[in-house]
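Appendix B, record 7
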Amino acid sequence: MKVLIIKVFNGRTILEKRTVCGEIKGGRKILDKICTTKGHMEPVTEVVGGPELYIDRGSTINLTCTVKYSPEPPSYIIWNHNNAIISYNSPRGGVSVLTEKGETTTSYLLIQQAKPSDSGRYSCSPSNAAPHSIIVHVLQGELPAAMQTGGQMPQQIPLSFCLLVSVILTYVTS
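Structure tokens (predicted):
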């Protein structure tokens, strides 16, 4: 079955004709398995839990990247933080990667004792597929923006209820 795929990349719209060789799913991921018009599957990269992740300072950041539908596992996966390659031997310490190759290749990036400087865009870049990113926010006790009230006042207690409680307290204490 041929489909027309519309992608938006850096503000540009790209139209592609493709052959679907697997399932079609609804929601955010419209096409899960996609083939080129020659019938070869394209690898799909995903950093699980995105597009944004909120984590408390001092916690361990655990990012999981999957590469699916690849004819062979990627020969390497590079993790980036704010467009810089992450060094696993950096003076910061506490950074490690574990990669399991297979039909679905999974790479785990672990960063211990998260600091505010660890906030930013993390990208997983396999050797044989397009990269995928997630934005990480390291919180210092504050609520993420999605959980804040947006400046709304808390619900006020009706005056009649306050008067009732006042009358009851006056009655009980006399």
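Remarks on this record: Residues 102 and 157 are 59 Å apart (CA to CA). The radius of gyration is 25 Å.
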